[in-house]
Amino acid sequence: MGGVGIDDVARLAGVSTATVSRALRGLPEVRESTRARVRRAAAELNYVPSPSAASLASGRTRTIGLLTASFSRWFNRNVVEGAEERLRGAGFDVLLHAFDFAPDGSRAPIDMSTMRQRVDGMIVLGIPLSPEERLTLDNLNVPIVFVGTGPPDHVRVSMDDHDGSRIAIEHLAALGHRRIGQIGAKLPYDAHWSSASERHDGTVAALAALGIDYDDTLEAFGDYTQEGGRAAAAALLDAHPDMTALFAYSDEMAFGALEELRARGIRVPEDVSVVGIDGHELSGLIGLTTVAQDARAQGDAGASLLLEMIAGSNVGRDVRFPTALVDNGSTAPAPAVRAA
Amino acid sequence: MGGVGIDDVARLAGVSTATVSRALRGLPEVRESTRARVRRAAAELNYVPSPSAASLASGRTRTIGLLTASFSRWFNRNVVEGAEERLRGAGFDVLLHAFDFAPDGSRAPIDMSTMRQRVDGMIVLGIPLSPEERLTLDNLNVPIVFVGTGPPDHVRVSMDDHDGSRIAIEHLAALGHRRIGQIGAKLPYDAHWSSASERHDGTVAALAALGIDYDDTLEAFGDYTQEGGRAAAAALLDAHPDMTALFAYSDEMAFGALEELRARGIRVPEDVSVVGIDGHELSGLIGLTTVAQDARAQGDAGASLLLEMIAGSNVGRDVRFPTALVDNGSTAPAPAVRAA
DNA sequence: TTGTACGCGTTATCAG
DNA sequence: CTGATAACGCGTACAA
């Protein structure tokens, strides 16, 4: 029951352990009749190969490390789901390494060296990494795919952040909004290649293209949490009573903003319009207009890419997913326009 | 860089590999000065032990398997977070095995034998298992902890389901509601020990204690999804126009019910009151009164229990967490009462 | 197409 | 307290 080894199977099937190994792993050089016999013997004995022994002997682990920030974030949990399904379907296990940000937005340094020898590849999800952290990652000497946020010298899968901002800003501008507050993120180690940075740049570019002056006091940072979004909204509302719209870089931050607006008795969308990013499953019920992305598909794509890299392929550098505006009713013509 | 082994460290420290192993694992029988020397050598060489080799030799993996249904469910993702943090803190890795239900509520059979030799323990999250599935689990020969839903002959951590229903029903009854629809779940393999079953039983008991007749046509099944909750609400509203309240066994199903009510122009709470279970982070913004539980703490507790079992302790059978009503405004006196 | 035999990098036993 | 050495269970050259 506990100790059926490869030699037990070999004995029962009347072949050598080498043949058992080859047959069970589907190597082509085995006669089909032999393979069938081995399979039957293995099934009869309820044999399962020891992954430790296999890894030790082969150097491969058939395990992928998944580094992610908290599942309280819609994006992360959806990517993990998509990636996990694809990886398990391909016969890979998933080693989960999650971590949280402290309330002040900081976080403990992540040491990936514990993953050494444990994984054949890594997926890193949605967080900027410090140079030291990237070093411990690279020292793993396995392929790495970044999803959501990733440095330029690595393979990255994400939505088209720049274009997402353009869509949001153009939507608001078309409704006559000119004083648009932004709720962004300033995470540690953001070296200008995070999604937050790109959404910011896209916003600035979109405003410029529309001839609207960019005012950096119209940006506050919610760091992708609901509470952060609420605090950011509060700060912006205090500083800019004339603001008529809010663009949050995630639905969760937008939800926080909606809470703050409601608490102040400010009507949405009559007084202030709000747009988020994600396409959260509750944006419909809550009534939040959002720039929707398919996070699950990004997880799937990231996993697929990683598997190709492990198989030796030379994949490209970047995969960007499109976004689309979903109007759930939280935007309306700017008050001044309506008045006119 | 790639191939620093225990013997490299041994050579540099001037000791045997056995001593290196003992020193680095913190075994007590090593002189502190020796341990320090070994530690220094290991650090200098950037040595990380091979988990495969360690597992092969010791039989332990320092890895816990986590079996869970989709993270789209609030409960699951919060439990996973709580458990993951505790396990990683204790030096254990987490192997994630997720799966989805098909749209019709069924699911493919889960084969845990792939976890054989891979994990020192298992946490199973929130799903009833078939007898065959439980068998593949038990055949792993490792401690198992169930969180949320678990068979009576295993260690289980969950909220007090029975009492949660009591709280919800008493709250509604105190407001004068008598025709209370329930949105429950009928998952495959539910052998009467699931949270859904217990919430149902608790509801029936609470109604009986209040002298309210139980009517099984007032129960529909949403299977813990938002869409399912919406469909269940629709069916109940069609069949029972006189129904004045809905009690859903999860916030997500309640959210679906709110969607359906809104689509029909039925006001909440003026026409129909709604209560959920969970304390979802968006229940406040959405305005859903709910019986709140601490899912993260349950994940933490489940992990702690499992670690104790792995260490050889004989833990108890059951840990139940309390719940508390959070009034977010979706309940009001029953219309008939108001009219009176 | 199959078998032999060595090696993978630790842990654990037993001496010392 | 420390060292030598035999497992641990498989993958894979190499040979047949």
TrEMBL record, chains A, B:
Residues 4-58 form the HTH lacI-type domain. Pfam families: LacI, Peripla_BP_3. Transmembrane segments: none annotated. SUPFAM superfamilies: lambda repressor-like DNA-binding domains (SSF47413), Periplasmic binding protein-like I (SSF53822). The keyword Transcription regulation applies. InterPro entries: HTH_LacI, LacI/GalR-like_sensor, Lambda_DNA-bd_dom_sf, Peripla_BP_I. GO terms for molecular function: DNA-binding transcription factor activity; transcription cis-regulatory region binding. The keyword Transcription applies. Keywords: DNA-binding, Transcription, Transcription regulation. This is LacI family transcriptional regulator. It comes from Microbacterium sorbitolivorans.
